[in-house]
Amino acid sequence: MTSKLPLVIILGATGSGKTKLSLELARKFGGQIISADSMQIYKGLDIITAKATVEERQMAPHHLIDELHPSQSCSVVDFRNRALSIIDNLFAKNILPIVVGGTNYYIESLLWRILVEEPGAWIEQNSPFETSQLSNSELHKLLLEQDPDRANKLHPNDRRKVLRYRVSNNIGWSSVVCKLGPGDQIRHFWYLYYPCLKSVISSELLQHLFA
């Protein structure tokens, strides 16, 4: 897809202030907001996901919030297909799309097709380790030695995630993703990472909890 407008991406932890920034950008540039949070697409769960309030959603159009019942599934491919359709429509109307979220893989799926359609093969090829000869259980055992908490949450047969976290723990996932260069689905994008102190995030979440 091509557009003179960029895709604006705001990434950060829950409670870091992404919603406030996205609303300011939407107001200033007439944009619309697309949630890239794997939980905000579900109805309910408002507090734990720091979902934009009803009042905030009235300040600018929002997409992919409160669309599914918690019993429904939504894979990264489902999200990508929904989001790209919305982005295409906004670009066609010359409206700035602002993607906001904390689910990195969802955001990556919008930019690089290969990370969704052939993720295992691509990660294997770009990993700093020789892994092609290792079985799933052997690879999982290596992660277990390195990061037992993470490994215990993953099934040994989930090779893509096991390898991804092993790479992340050693050289950082960003070091691998940067090899991809510009997005092969959306090439023109602005990526805004919104860092925030843990103490500030904790305070913000407590305010949501007791509001």
From TrEMBL:
Keywords: ATP-binding, Nucleotide-binding, Transferase. It comes from the Eukaryota. InterPro entries: Dimethylallyltransferase (IPR039657), IPT (IPR018022), P-loop_NTPase (IPR027417). Pfam families: IPPT. One of its GO terms (biological process) is tRNA modification. GO terms for molecular function: ATP binding; tRNA dimethylallyltransferase activity. GO terms for cellular component: mitochondrion. Belongs to the IPP transferase family. PANTHER family: TRNA DIMETHYLALLYLTRANSFERASE (PTHR11088:SF89). This is tRNA dimethylallyltransferase. It comes from Photinus pyralis (Common eastern firefly).
